[in-house]
What does this fold into?
Amino acid sequence: MTLAFNRLTAAAPTLPEAHSPLPALIALRAVDRAMRDTTRSLAAIDAQASEARSRLDDETTARREAAFITAALEARIRRLRESQRQRSERSARQTLDELVDRIQRRTEADNRGLKMLVKAFNDFMESHLAAMLAAEETGGPVIGVADEMDVDGGVDGETRSAAVADLRSLTEELLNASVSGGGYIELDRDSAASRFLVRARVAHLAPNDARRLRLADFGRQFSR
It folds into this structure.
């Protein structure tokens, strides 16, 4: 084997002739192979680039759609909030208007009722109490003991008017003191009007001071 190896290595290599087309063919084959490899690589790169562009387009479209949806949702939320605020304001205004209307109607009804009560009270004083108050004020019988007919003829008009004015003034003072929270009023004197109000349980004297008078607490009776 050593002898054969030495014989082969010692021999000159077989090369193509100078004008042989073999080197050119080998070169062309190598270039063709390289071109085919390059073409395959370019096709793969182009496919990858196309896929990347497609993904980018999809992501861009998705982002654009997401931005559009977000803007639409934000606009919808703003409109809903504004609508809710307007409804709340309308509801509050409507509630306030209804409350004011109820208060006004109640006040008007109370005023009408108060006017009717005042008129009835004045009519009652003029028709029934005037003569008896005047009679008691001038030393006559106590109201409720004597009949109205017994004292009506013996009292002059001026005395009747003074007695009615005294009762009306005393009643107004008691009402004003009750509304203002003051309670008692100071009596200038012991009059038939004040005695009548106490006997009728419309007013009460202070426990330790007969010169102080206050309106009865009628609200306590209704709260029971």
Notes: Helices lie at 2-10, 22-137, 148-152, 157-180, 192-199, 218-223. The chain has a mean pLDDT of 76.
